Amino acid sequence: MAAIIQGIGTATALNSTNSLDTNKTLFANSRRSLSDRKGRFFMVRSDGCLSYGLNGHGGRAEKLITNAVAAKEDTAVAYTSSKPGHELLLFEALREGLEEEMDRDPTVCVMGEDVGHYGGSYKVTKGLAPKYGDLRVLDTPIAENSFTGMGIGAAMTGLRPVVEGMNMGFLLLAFNQISNNCGMLHYTSGGQFKIPIVIRGPGGVGRQLGAEHSQRLESYFQSIPGIQMVACSTPYNAKGLMKAAIRSDNPVILFEHVLLYNLKERIPDEEYVLNLEEAEMVRPGEHVTILTYSRMRYHVMQAAKTLVNKGYDPEVIDIRSLKPFDLYTIRNSVKKTHRVLIVEECMRTGGIGASLTAAITENFHDYLDAPIVCLSSQDVPTPYAGTLENWTVVQPPQIVTAVDQLCQ
Amino acid sequence: MALSTNRTVNQLLKPLTAAISATRCLSSDSTSIITVESSLPFTSHKIDPPSRAVETSPNELMTFFKDMAEMRRMEIAADSLYKAKLIRGFCHLYDGQEAVAVGMEAAITKKDCIITAYRDHCIYLARGGGLYESFAELMGRKDGCSKGKGGSMHFYKKESGFYGGHGIVGAQVPLGIGLSFAQKYSKEEHVTFAMYGDGAANQGQLFEGLNMAALWDLPAILVCENNHYGMGTAEWRAAKSPAYYKRGDYVPGLKVDGMDALAVKQACKFAKEHALKNGPIILEMDTYRYHGHSMSDPGSTYRTRDEISGVRQERDPIERIRKLILAHDVATEKELKDIEKEKRKVVDEAIAKAKESPMPDPSDLFTNVYVKGFGVEVFGPDRKEVRATLP
Questions:
Q1: Torsion over CA of A40, A45, A47 and A52, rounded to 10 degrees?
Q2: Where's the Dehydrogenase E1 component domain (chain B) (predicted)?
Q3: What is the ipTM of this complex?
Q4: From the list B182, B215, B382, which residue is nearest A157 (CB)?
Q5: Could you tell me which CATH class the domain B37-360 is placed in?
């Protein structure tokens, strides 16, 4: 990972200990950029070589294309292929991605509760067990701690397991394995072991599922060093992120959402792999940057219709990558609009929005014309009653009101 | 208790050595087979125990002695280094339990995997790790086996199948089950030894892992190093059933005298054959640690000094091998003393070299957090847009 040690003004040598300015430099997110007024900075990559750049590219010959998918919500993905593409639901897209990777690489295997014979509690692994066998699509007993540990142990030897948590909330039982072993083994072994595991499952607030089954685990996992977190929101990015996560040599936690499994979209026939660290530009705009991910993307787009009628031009970005944040895309957007609204489903305290607010304020303070507004769920266990549940989660009218206040 | 039964050990050994006349060997013929009986018969659970007669050779006995002498010296040296504040944090010492490490190593290959908890210094040595790398790691230097970033509890050696080195009690057992899963998946004919202590034997994840291993016939061997104290609590205070080898219920188990390297070797060989054919098996090694749980524990508040010195006199693993070597004329008393002196020298040299070695670079703080390069080549559906492979 590109570890960025910033030397403001004059270059500071890598080995001198005074170059570590702890207030600013120990920043674990990639491609950190500064306003041009601050001048140049040096970027140290994890292999220790120093590279120099203005935008965080480090002088690469191939340009990083950041606007991965600039598509409006209701039109098909923009691509210039001649094949018509095929329509499918999000869980089918996940399955397609998984199946393609399992065909391509024999070390990819799946393990989880009900993934084999039952076909997966959300049908993501349906049909895979008859095709690949019981050992490769493994039905585990209900023992999250140990089967997650088992997946990590298998990953240490070179297999690429995909561990499914039936609901992300159940992975709390495996927190020790995910935090201490999955995240840290590459570091504590001095680089000897890599853990190319994917941990995936549905989370988020569903329809009256109750407090324990409506948890947002991204806020608990976000400070574990060594893991990457991504959240998918459309069939297109679900398939692409699934493939990228499986191919990545780092442990990746892929957050799906219980209510998004039945989204339908037309996706390309050709193979594609998305970038794990990149955000998606959902709707370009001028007035305000709205950062969101997973299910809240749809609430935001619904609010966007109202906002457009009111005369605003919101720029909606689906951040997708929850760890590390794609500060490059966010920087470009904030530089343009100067106002930021974060809409998330995590709780107010310690959620992804809280970290994102801190990251943006720390880095792009000069660009902002107004304080960042973060709309998140309430700090309460999710109630069962439907009306109460709706009040804990951010709703489109609240988004519209927030933009109104922000743009005054 | 283990102590009372082992008073018969010395009585057993003497008549045995006299009886083994046919296989008496000359010290020059180092590949001849010596058959020794293990100190105690194996007790078993749901399986036929292996025979007490263990085949060994003079070479092997000398290797055992040398390796155990080196391990013992290393642990004692680590004790002094800790008190001199060159080793910080936690330091869990293995002296007294060396027989388990060398016996296991004699029965298996480097392709078999071993995973253990935090009392891992000697197992790292047994797997081929170097003294210099060990001490450098303990002192937090760059040349350590984990580049100074792991510490005492995180020794690893991937090329020899040593998977560590884990700080959280019991968490290594599911990892070990995963290693055996990968071995079965890749159809290798190798096994995994997942080691844990009597304290960890009460962890739920152990039984979860055992259930899975038994369900899918994974080649996993769970080794309980029962040194009778889980941290500061005696086993009778912590476990309703201290017969750890029986805890597997449907999984067969074997109880072994863990202070007898040859018995350990026999048991591990037996377990490996069993695991490759029939799935998991539990080995309980009845052993003892002379030091406390870690360097911050004096080790004498929950047990008497008499008990510790009693075990040292009656059951010490190095003494047992020494007696065997002398009884079979494999080497003389002086040669053995010379070996011990040499090991002391080797250990001191490694420490001196490690003390001089450099600390890690500040930039090493950020290395190895992620695998270098997020490593994925990304591309759009038409492959016309060239996307980068991220640094």
A1: -20
A2: 67-362
A3: 0.83
A4: B182
A5: alpha beta
